[in-house]
Design goal:
The complex is a heterodimer. Chain A is 47% helix and 13% strand. Chain A is α+β, with helices and mostly antiparallel strands. In chain A, helix 5 packs antiparallel against helix 8 (279-306), helix 8 runs antiparallel to helix 9 and helix 8 packs across helix 12. By secondary structure, chain B is α+β, with helices and mostly antiparallel strands. Chain B has a 6-stranded mixed sheet with strand order 2-1-10-11-7-6, with no helix packed on it. Chain B is globular, with a radius of gyration of 23 Å. The model of chain B has no long low-confidence stretch (mean pLDDT 94). Classes of the chains: A alpha+beta, B alpha+beta. At the A-B interface, helix 8, helix 9, helix 10, helix 12 and helix 14 of A face helix 1, helix 2, helix 9, helix 10 and helix 11 of B. Chain B: Residues 278-470 form the HpaB/PvcC/4-BUDH C-terminal domain. Chain B: Residues 6-265 form the HpaB/PvcC/4-BUDH N-terminal domain.
Chain lengths: 489, 471
């Protein structure tokens, strides 16, 4: 079945107050075409071995996010697959499923750690891992609870504020509540649902992990306003709008084989922590970030050159800063791969510290990159004609004369500034600014997490060594003179 | 065969060091220098005893041991060995001493490794480099480098203010005679020889200033004019200033003879520039600066963490965020160093760390360190001032009271005070202020070094192509 065809599955996607068919609605056309194209790379002879590997079960090419790395080279194979997709989408599409598919791979590899929380976990995740891999399922996540009152602890929240099981049947559990932010949910197949909360032992009903098919009856997928454009000159918005949605579970029956953890606050906490430190999944996010930073640095460089602004020292300085962003993230990526290790299950994992560092840097880098792009393009972004002036238009001779740049013609310059504007000024662009700041979680908390999990012992030793040696190495004048004398002799 | 002379013996060899209007005759026992001299002696001793001996030295083809800064790297592993040697020394100075000779030695190693290529440009230079390199290596000579003209009126063009810049006055069969000044010669009073280079690209009109040579520290007519000393003699209350003041000096040359065998470039702007930007020399010396930066940032994180822990501040989310920012600085530079080494490039038979990662690390460093000090202030806050004037007072007449009020969460008054003295020395002392300035500017004017990253970026065409394909 085609990707688009697989979405005609009875799902309830709401946009602008009506239930829509995502396969035909213009808000989704460009994005679905992009995903269809990316998936087709798995069937394209020139790309399939970069994007994927042969499933041991189906013998068909499947995405490398499911590939289990046993060596440094295997890890690089995964990276190349991530980079292929993220470079084709300029890092602008972040939830193409290779992140969530990596999470599935991670849960599958560590499945035995979860058996204590739910006896069915091992069998269910194994089955799902193989299914998602071989059916090329597009997966996303919905972890957070709705923003209702963040100042209250979980146990004081309104009873419908946290997704919970309201009853069980032979087929599965019936759940009620809401989850956010489910990026890509309108056109994904499944969504991983857990909780970020540290739940108390009596919050059994809320303490679950599911992998929910997005077409279940009663599951309402409520989209934000669409930022997609059908104008050809909006090259990003016409192809890469990743829709975000809130999921409303209005009494949804989730079948047992998709209930991975039931009624275990500890298990849910463990599952959430696992996601936060899942090196295989974080690896993908850093590869994606690098593509995006390269793109925005490229756009900024081209814009500066197009109007001769790169003549100025302070402009060069700012673009230099963008290059330090790229180099930092790339270096951390290389470092994580080279300094990886084989774990007990014989899986070669990238080193988590450089990845964590890169992700935290990313929350500040992208906003700063936009800031620099604005400073350099300046008024140029709002002196574009409302739509492109074509060659047969009466204004064209004037357009060619007044809209040209230092070394580029009017069309080339216009194209550059239009991309720039989409990055800094379009709704899609603004959404990306927000996304990079927050996709890893509240940045202050993810920073704090890095502090908490960082191995500080070697630094403490260094400090203590220094302070202790201070006393030992204090010598009196006489002793010192003696040592000098001995030395000279 | 060259036999090294003991360091302390070499120090009082007639060098002209000016401090507070007088010539310092005995550096070894002068209060402004002796702490640092003692530190350097300690570092040199580490080369002779295990386990540090095998970390710091390698065996030369002559069968002697030499410091690893002299090793010509022929593999990635060699680069890693050099890193570890740099790290070993700088860690002994808590990350505070930056010019322990490895930087200037690495410049020489780079030229030495490329001597055949350079000999094509300047016949005879290979032999000179071999002699200089072997002498420095076998005699374990300490060195530093001075490249800049004095800061006089930078808004004026060179022709207008020629006076004062170091230049060739005359020459004869013995060598060149130079007069004028060079700055900043960090650590000059402590070393054995100085590498004098020309930082800026010069035109033919400035040929007299386009020179590169090695001058022995005791050369006749060479004056080292020190800034005010930031050294303290009180080790327990000023643990850094009492041992690690590197001293900065302006070099004034008063008709100094530089023998031909020590002159690499004389009155040749083109050759001076070629040596200045020579790849191996630049990359090997930059490599050391990044290792050094890591050691310093490690000390900063350790101090920040201890400040927070001993004040019970690690429970606050915003404090954890700030400490994490320090960790992220450190880990970013470590990542860049790793990448530079893993992605090392073979160049004329030797291995060089990858340029763009080093450049980025150095540029980030100019902004990281001032920010790190700011965070230390925010975390330490008034605690940095809440200590008795001297640590000895903890055991003095009101010691019992001090012990009751000056402790930390899990440390006693003595330990906490001792630690705060260290933190303050890094944050608030003259030595600390000098270090902030150093990190901002040691690699050059940061606006220009960032701009240079734009101008020379190896990936620029690839990025532009990306955008071209997009359209």
């Amino acid at each position: 079945m085609s990707f688009s065809g697989s979405l005609k599955d009875g799902r309830s996607v709401w946009l602008d107050g009506v239930k829509v068919d995502v396969t035909t609605h213009p808000a989704f056309t460009g994005t679905l075409e992009t995903i269809t194209y990316l998936l087709a790379l798995l069937d394209d002879e020139n790309n399939q071995s970069i994007a994927g590997f042969k499933s041991p079960k189906s013998n068909q090419f499947v995405h490398s996010a499911f590939y289990i790395p046993r060596s440094y080279e295997d890890l690089i194979k995964r990276k190349k697959a991530f980079a292929l997709w993220s470079n084709k989408t300029y890092g602008v599409m972040s939830r193409l499923s290779d992140y969530a598919n990596s999470l599935i791979t991670g849960y599958y590899l560590d499945r035995h750690q979860f058996a204590q929380y739910d006896a069915g976990f091992v069998e269910k995740i194994t089955k799902y891992y193989e299914l998602a891999r071989d059916e090329r399922r597009i997966v996303t996540t919905a972890i957070l609870d709705p923003q209702i009152d963040r100042s209250k602890p979980a146990e004081e929240q309104d009873e419908d504020a946290l997704l919970r099981i309201i009853r069980e049947t032979e087929e599965g559990v019936v759940v009620r509540g809401a989850k956010m932010i489910a990026t890509g949910a309108p056109y994904a197949h499944d969504v991983i649902v857990t909780s970020p909360q540290k739940l108390s032992p009596n919050q059994i009903a809320q303490a679950n992990m599911f992998i929910v098919p997005l077409n279940l009856p009663g599951l309402q997928i409520v989209c934000r306003e669409s930022f997609a454009s059908n104008k050809e000159h909006h090259k990003l918005s016409s192809r890469f709008d990743e829709m975000d949605a809130v999921l409303l579970f209005d009494d949804v029956l989730i079948p047992w084989d998709r209930v991975l953890i039931k009624g275990s606050p500890e298990g849910v906490l463990k599952a959430h922590r696992h996601q936060q430190i899942d090196a295989l999944a974080q690896h993908q996010t850093v590869v994606r970030l690098l593509s995006k930073l390269e793109f925005i640095a490229g756009v900024t460089t081209a814009i500066a050159q197009s109007i001769g602004a790169d003549y100025f020292l302070h402009v060069q300085e700012k673009i230099g800063e963008l290059y330090t962003q790229i180099d930092s993230i790339e270096a951390l990526l290389i470092s994580s791969e080279k300094e990886g290790h084989l774990n007990e299950q014989n899986v070669y994992l990238p080193n988590i510290t450089p990845l964590q560092t890169a992700r935290n840097l990313g929350t500040h880098f992208y906003g700063r990159a936009l800031d620099i792009l604005k400073q350099i393009g300046a008024g140029g972004f709002i002196q574009l004609s409302s739509s492109p002036i074509l060659e047969n238009h009466e204004l064209y001779p004037l357009f060619s004369k007044y809209y040209k740049g230092a070394k580029v013609d009017a069309r080339t310059k216009e194209n550059l500034f239009r991309i720039g504007w989409e990055l800094i000024g379009s709704q899609l662009g603004s959404r990306h600014d927000l996304y990079e700041r927050f996709y890893t979680g509240d940045p202050i908390r993810v920073y704090a997490l890095q502090y908490e999990t960082y191995d500080k012992s070697y630094l403490k030793n260094k400090l203590n060594h220094f302070l202790n040696n201070l006393i030992e190495r204090e010598v009196t004048e006489d002793e010192y003179a003696d040592s000098v004398f001995a030395e000279v002799e | 065969m060259n036999t090294p002379i003991p360091y302390l013996q070499r120090l009082n060899n007639g060098r002209t060091v000016w401090l507070d209007g007088e010539i310092v005759n005995d550096l070894v026992n002068h209060k402004a220098f002796k702490g640092t001299v003692q530190t350097i002696q300690h570092l040199l001793n580490l080369q002779t005893v295990e386990p540090t001996k095998s970390i710091l030295t390698y065996e030369t083809e002559k069968g002697a041991n030499a410091h690893l800064s002299f090793l010509v790297p022929t593999s990635i592993n060699d680069l890693k060995r050099k890193s570890l040697a740099y790290k070993c020394w700088v860690d002994e100075t808590f990350g505070v001493m930056s010019r322990l000779s490895e930087y200037s030695r690495s410049q020489l190693v780079g030229w030495y490794a490329s001597r055949q290529q350079l000999d094509v440009l300047s016949p005879g230079i290979a032999t000179k480099l071999e002699k200089l390199y072997e002498a420095a290596r076998d005699l374990d000579l300490l060195s530093t480098v001075a490249a800049h003209d004095p800061q006089r009126n930078r808004s004026k063009s060179a022709e207008e203010i020629e006076h004062g810049k170091l230049r060739v006055v005359t020459k004869n069969e013995e060598g060149i005679f130079v007069s004028g000044a060079k700055t900043i010669a960090t650590a000059a009073p402590y070393v054995d020889e100085l590498l004098i280079t020309s930082y800026h690209k010069r035109g033919l009109d400035e040929a007299a200033m386009a020179n590169i040579f090695y001058v022995p520290i005791s050369a006749q007519g060479l004056h080292m004019v020190c800034r005010e000393s930031f050294a303290s003699t009180d080790t327990s209350n000023h643990p850094l200033s009492s041992r690690f003041d590197e001293m900065d000096a302006v070099l004034i040359f008063d008709n100094v003879l530089i023998p031909w065998e020590r002159v690499l470039v004389a009155e040749d702007p083109e050759l001076a520039w070629k040596l200045r930007i020579e790849t191996a020399s630049s990359l090997l010396s930059q490599h050391q600066t990044v290792v050094r930066l890591i050691s310093k940032l490690e000390s900063v994180v350790a101090i920040g963490n201890e400040l927070a822990e001993t004040a019970g501040a690690t429970e606050f989310l915003h404090v954890k965020e700030k400490l994490s920012e320090l960790i992220i600085q450190l880990e970013t530079i470590k990542g860049l160093l790793n990448a530079a080494e893993y992605e090392a490039i073979e160049h004329n038979g030797i291995y060089l760390p990858k340029q763009r990662f080093l450049t980025t690390a150095r540029n980030l460093g100019t902004r990281y360190y001032p920010r790190a000090l700011e965070i230390l202030q925010q975390i330490g806050a008034s605690g940095l001032l809440q200590v008795p004037s001297t640590i000895q007072e903890i055991d003095g007449p009101i010691g019992d009271k001090l012990q009751a009020y000056y402790g930390g969460t899990h440390t006693g008054a003595f330990a906490r005070t001792k630690f705060i003295k260290l933190a303050w020395d890094l944050i608030g002392s003259q030595l600390g202020a000098r270090h902030e300035l150093y990190e901002r500017f040691y690699s050059g004017d940061p606006v220009r070094t960032f701009a240079a990253q734009y101008q020379n970026y190896s990936e620029k065409d690839r990025l532009l192509k990306l955008v071209e394909e997009f359209n």
